[in-house]
Amino acid sequence: MAIIDGKVSLQHVVTMESLTNEEVLGLIQRGLAFKWGEATAAIDQPVYVSNLFFEDSTRTHKSFEMAELRLGLNMIDFDAKTSSVNKGETLYDTILTMSALGVDICVIRHSEVDYYRELIESPTITASIVNGGDGSGQHPSQSLLDLMTIYEEFGRFEGLKIMIAGDLTHSRVAKSNMQILKRLGAELFFAGPSEWYTAEFEPYGQHVALDDIVEQADVLMFLRVQHERHDGNGHFSKEGYHQLHGLTQERYHRMKESAIIMHPAPVNRDVEIADALVEAPKSRIVRQMQNGVFVRMAILEAVLQARATK
């Protein structure tokens, strides 16, 4: 991993921990440059990319596709529902096959945490791996688009008060963001049900009541309640959660004028955020989705840069 000729060069993009601050800021700057209209570089020879999503996705999957189209890459279709996965093929063998067929980049979302480790350590797999989300582990491209959105708004990270609220335990977004935001100098706070705040979050920020931080925070980042990752025990009240842990109209009006609302989406409307606030003036949720295309272009360009200089 390095910066070559002013551009980030990355063989794989699998975790935020593996990126230096310089590389993170370089990817943000390239994403902003693409957003502001900078033309993509011509590709000398065909590049083949496949998006292998073993979990449902709209934003991540389709924004990677859009990024690939904008860069002029050739997409190789993959549908887990009709693949040899249904015959018992392992993820390793699927990627081994795609690599052998000549696929240069595999963008993967999978339910297994750290699935990418054996792939990037394989001496046989030559394809670059871009992590589109691994279970409740990491989600580097979402983290980078979040960082781009914050940087675009404030021009800095140092000294910002950033609250991350909601389903912390199951959120790969929370885990990716807390690591890099603290490293970049932000002050972090966590909110939501106390049972979803575990020891792994303690080194990064304290758990507070939402009502105690809503007037101070520069960024209020809400997380989706991931019903599919809970064991189904107990009863969940949407209205009760919203009143205790969600962004209500009353809390919205207590926010700083300069503060912004973020959410990785999809939003459970009237649970994490009141329906009327999803597109409110302080909301940056739509901008996050827009920025996802541009930062994923930057990620793919960084991988292409590394492959071109091998």
Automatic annotation (TrEMBL):
The keyword Transferase applies. Pathway: Pyrimidine metabolism; UMP biosynthesis via de novo pathway; (S)-dihydroorotate from bicarbonate: step 2/3. Keywords: Pyrimidine biosynthesis, Transferase. L-aspartate binds at K87, R172, R224. One of its GO terms (molecular function) is amino acid binding. One of its GO terms (cellular component) is cytosol. InterPro entries: Asp/Orn_carbamoyltranf_P-bd, Asp/Orn_carbamoylTrfase, Asp/Orn_carbamoylTrfase_sf, Asp_carbamoyltransf, Asp_carbamoyltransf_Asp/Orn-bd. Residues 11-152 form the Aspartate/ornithine carbamoyltransferase carbamoyl-P binding domain. Residues 158-302 form the Aspartate/ornithine carbamoyltransferase Asp/Orn-binding domain. The keyword NAD does not apply. GO terms for biological process: 'de novo' pyrimidine nucleobase biosynthetic process; 'de novo' UMP biosynthetic process; amino acid metabolic process. Its EC number is 2.1.3.2. Carbamoyl phosphate binds at R59, T60, R109, H139, Q142, A265, P266. It catalyses: carbamoyl phosphate + L-aspartate = N-carbamoyl-L-aspartate + phosphate + H(+). Catalyzes the condensation of carbamoyl phosphate and aspartate to form carbamoyl aspartate and inorganic phosphate, the committed step in the de novo pyrimidine nucleotide biosynthesis pathway. Belongs to the aspartate/ornithine carbamoyltransferase superfamily. ATCase family. Heterododecamer (2C3:3R2) of six catalytic PyrB chains organized as two trimers (C3), and six regulatory PyrI chains organized as three dimers (R2). This is Aspartate carbamoyltransferase. It comes from Streptococcus zhangguiae. The gene is pyrB.
